[in-house]
Amino acid sequence: MDYEILLTDLGFTRRQRLDRAVHTLEGILTGIAIDGTINPKELEELKAWVNDHRKLIGNHPFTELIPTIDAALADGVIDTEEQADLLWLCQNLQGGSEYYDEITSDIQRLQGILHGILADGEVRDEEIRQLSQWADDHGHLKGCYPFDEIDALLTQVLRDGQIDSMEREMLKVFFEDFVSYSLSRRMLDRRSGVTGSRKLSGICAVCPELAFADRIYSFTGASVKASRSQMASHVESLGGRFSRNVTPVVHYLVVGANGNPAWAYACYGRKVEQAMKLRADGHAVVIVHENDFWDALQDHTISAS
After folding, report:
1. In the chain, where do the E strands start and end?
2. Of 78-87, 91-100, 174-183, 276-285, the least confident
């Protein structure tokens, strides 16, 4: 972020920028302690947030936040009481007048949580479980990027009760893709001129709520039950429409199962990539596994009869 432009052109007076910074900090504080411990690498992440915003110390709420964090970091340790005090300060400095709505605010907090989890370069089992609990408690984020993708990954990883090294690495790749590296890593990359991120293939939403009337569907992959034209006919019979291409007006992209048990990780090609890009850009296209499509179709057909 170019803070010189921010200070001269905006004066950091726009409420949305203030809220976003505080939401990210709140998430970082939650993320670095989500497994019950705060290690030195995680403290570096918090220091990076402070250094990233230190030029704004003359502006509220940084006038209050930065000295308080500096004091907490002075002994090189943040205990649970200091963390609780800092979280309380974040929540109260917002003063109940958030610019963003609840969904946007919580997505910003989620980004901060992932920053915190990634701070030490590892994704630990307890962090995965606690993040899954956070996702369960924030079901109102369904349909939003990257909540659906993270929720689907966590559900798949925790399904058998075991977390292996490949699953941890997969989650780490996706988290890094969303946050575009941790704050401390991003600051190092900024100085060294390193850019770019890694991609993860598309993921279907968990238990999505599907509507048909006035909704536009697109399909990719091979279905286990019907041809694409037959699926389109089902949608149209319930008042929906079919699109051959994935564009910003599409509401649902249905991914054919084709008997593939690894649907959560499989790469289905161009359309999934387009849908992921649209979601990342803020468009509300939901990536749906065909099993959920058929379940929703049956429910709507029964209710309509």
Report:
1. 216-220, 241-242, 252-255, 286-289
2. 91-100
Q: Which positions ≥6 away from 89 have C-beta within 8 Å? A: 64, 65, 68
CA-only gyration radius of the chain, Å: 21
Distance CA 39, CA 272 (A): 38
Maximum mean pLDDT: which of 19-23, 213-217, 271-275: 213-217
* Nearest C-alpha neighbor of 135 from the set 107, 170, 104, 163: 107
H or E segment to which residue 111 belongs: helix 102-118
Q: CB within 8 A of 169, min separation 6: which ones? A: 123
Going from the C-alpha of 91 to that of each of 48, 49, 68, 100, 234, the distances in angstroms are 20, 17, 14, 14, 48
- Model confidence at 7: pLDDT above 50: no
Delineate the domains of the chain, giving CATH numbers in brackets.
Answer: 3-192 (no CATH), 216-304 (3.40.50.10190)
- Section 49-78 average pLDDT: 86
* Residue with the two structure tokens 């319930």: 238
